[in-house]
Specification:
Shape: globular
Strand content: 15-25%
Structural class: alpha+beta
Mean pLDDT: 90
Number of helices: 4
Distance between the termini: 50 Å
Radius of gyration: 15 Å
Low-confidence stretches: none
Helix content: 40-55%
Number of domains: 1
Oligomer: single chain
Order of helices and strands: HEEEHHH
Length: about 150
């Protein structure tokens, strides 16, 4: 493995641990339009995602839960990235994230921000469900929103 790859892996680990130790948007959104509870029975991760959608735009997103560093940092990163986005944009981002988790080529024209740090999870199939838990909750909630 090249020195550049080792440096990138170390950077990604730092980003993941930063989101785990200092999660963004952790808490309960009292005036949210949707609350979704999901868990991963395989490893015990659980999340409660709350978000507020107005005029097709995600105005706010917060999460509560407990789980491994991958699960909680992914929730932190996801809530950061979807705030201010149109529902369609958030769903597209989730689709790109899913492709990345499966190790498939994905649309790299969209800046993933800190989320890119999770790309190494695709090498560990048992951890993919940890990384995707918050995203699945977001998809479920936004699809419910679209059906209204």
């Amino acid at each position: 493995m090249s020195s550049r790859n080792l440096d990138l892996d170390a950077l990604y680990r730092r980003v993941i641990m930063d989101h785990y130790k200092k999660p963004r948007n952790r808490g309960i959104l009292e005036d949210g339009s949707h609350t979704i509870n999901m868990n991963n029975p395989t490893c015990g991760d659980r999340i409660q995602l709350t978000f507020k959608v107005e005029d097709g735009i995600i105005k706010e997103a917060m999460f509560e839960g407990e789980g491994c560093s991958i699960s909680m940092s992914s929730a932190s990163m996801m809530t950061q990235e979807i705030k201010g986005k149109k529902v369609e944009e958030a769903l597209k981002l989730s689709e790109i994230f899913s492709e990345m988790m499966l190790g498939h080529d994905h649309d790299d024209s969209i800046d993933l921000g800190d989320i890119e740090a999770l790309q190494g999870v695709s090498k560990f199939p048992a951890r993919i469900k940890c990384a995707t838990l918050a995203w699945k909750a977001m998809e479920k909630g936004l699809k419910e929103e679209e059906q209204k």
